[in-house]
Specification:
Layout (H helix, E strand, L loop, with lengths): L4 H32 L5 H13 L3 H9 L4 H28 L1 H33 L5 H27 L4 H23 L2 H4 L11 H9 L2 H18 L5 H9 L3 H28 L5 H20 L1 H4 L3 H27 L7 H31 L4 H26 L13
């Protein structure tokens, strides 16, 4: 038997737990370093880039999954690593204020552990979904699990934001500890027993990791899609480390308000994904190519407005929600394409393919976030704060336009991968 819808939703809870912990590290702690501790934006940018850089190990995790490893074990172990890294990153905040060297050392270790945890748990989870889900359900399964991750991010950011004010280091540690412990416990409950109950397709013949990756890279469609993932994800993540500091420095948002704004943005992502899922699956409107291009162009247009929001006195939160909406529209179409392409090629090496694209996404996320942070620091030395952030948002908009152009060239128009045949 293959995964039922109930089991797919259970596995989606793991994605929600991943998002719940990671959003605190990339959003809340980032803002605290920049605004409350008055550290350069590039510092949290480097730490977040480190956690993404460590995820270059994702193809290795995928290869292990393809060779018949115990995926449940790796999913739980990865989540435990992620939780430990999250606690360490939060504990480093007061140390950065009182003993900078010690706090920085702890941060480096913590963010590296976070990257290992995300890579082990996330890749093993996607490999399990790709191999144990019926072929006609794969795109829908990818959409469901990603939506649940966005829901976990949004709910955590909004809830944590409400309890974080008035801010104190002790309050931060309490909130992070509760979220991390809850994520590990929920992950164990969500995955326990599922792998034993499903009959997955036979694993591909054993092959060396290097040979397997060379085989996948020789596939033109897989290679071109990897390039698209890198460019579009660089654009997607460029505002990740600068949006909350922008809200604090230019609009005077408190830590709780900016964290809640991040939750609202991810709520917009959720709505964008739902819209595309309903339109493509239920109404059978549009193709992957159309939805990806629309999401990228819409994101670019909203970024233009955000860039001028400080000068033109535009309300920031509605613009951020709109940005999330178009980001979600683009992302869900890309996910549908990924799940469709994962099973292509000789020997059906879903885990290795998902790992390759996951590594490309992680490298792009780290590169995009660090580049955005570094550009803001550079621009702030040359122009007023609002203009400095605005210049970086404009550059990000150009990357989204370039991503839309690349998608138009490499994505063959066809019925959306989100459509579920026979249903």
């Amino acid at each position: 038997m293959t995964l039922s819808w109930a089991q797919i939703f259970r596995l989606g809870l793991v994605q929600a737990c991943l998002g719940a912990i990671v959003v605190l590290m990339t959003s809340t702690l980032n803002r605290l370093m920049v605004v409350e501790l008055a550290l350069p934006v590039v510092l949290p940018g480097f730490l977040v880039a480190l956690h993404y850089g460590v995820q270059i190990t994702r193809p290795n995790w995928g290869h292990l999954a393809d060779q018949g490893g115990n995926r449940t074990r790796w999913i739980i172990a990865g989540m435990a690593l992620l939780a430990l890294g999250g606690l360490g990153a939060a504990a480093a905040i007061p140390l950065l204020e009182s003993h900078f060297g010690l706090g920085l050392a702890l941060s480096l270790v913590a963010y590296a552990v976070i990257g290992l945890g995300v890579g082990a748990s996330g890749t093993s989870l996607l490999a399990l979904l790709a191999t144990a889900t019926a072929e006609h359900r794969r795109p829908a399964a990818a959409t469901i699990t990603w939506l649940m991750m966005i829901a976990g991010i949004a709910l955590t950011a909004i809830t944590a934001g409400k309890f974080l004010d008035p801010y104190s280091h002790a309050r931060l540690m309490t909130i992070v500890a509760i979220i991390c412990a809850g994520a590990v416990a929920l992950t164990v409950l969500a995955v326990w027993g599922i792998e034993r109950r499903v009959v997955m397709r036979p694993a591909p013949p054993a092959i060396r990791f290097r040979d397997g990756m060379a085989e996948i890279w020789a596939d033109t469609r897989a290679r071109n899609f990897t390039f698209f993932v890198f460019l579009s994800m660089t654009a997607y993540f460029m505002q990740e480390l600068i949006l909350e500091p922008y809200a604090g420095l230019v609009f005077g948002f408190t830590p709780g308000q900016s964290t809640s704004m991040s939750g609202a943005q991810n709520g917009g992502v959720f709505l964008g994904m739902v819209l595309v899922g309903v339109a493509a699956t239920g109404l059978r409107l549009g193709s992957l190519r159309v939805w990806v291009m629309t999401g990228c162009i819409g994101s670019a247009a909203i970024l233009l407005a955000i860039a001028g929001a400080g000068t033109w006195a535009l309300p920031l939160v509605p613009l951020v929600v709109a940005l999330g909406f178009f980001n979600g529209m683009f992302a869900v179409a890309a996910i549908g394409s990924m799940m469709q392409l994962a099973g292509e090629g000789r020997d059906k090496r879903e885990g290795a393919r998902v790992g390759l694209w996951g590594a490309s996404q992680a490298i792009a996320a780290g590169f995009g976030g660090l580049t955005g942070a570094a550009l803001v620091d550079l621009a702030r030395s040359l122009m007023p704060v609002a203009d400095a952030f605005g210049a970086v948002f404009l550059f990000q908009a150009t990357l989204f336009i370039a991503s839309a152009a690349l998608a138009a060239r490499i994505m063959t128009p066809r019925p959306s991968a989100l459509m579920v045949p026979g249903e």
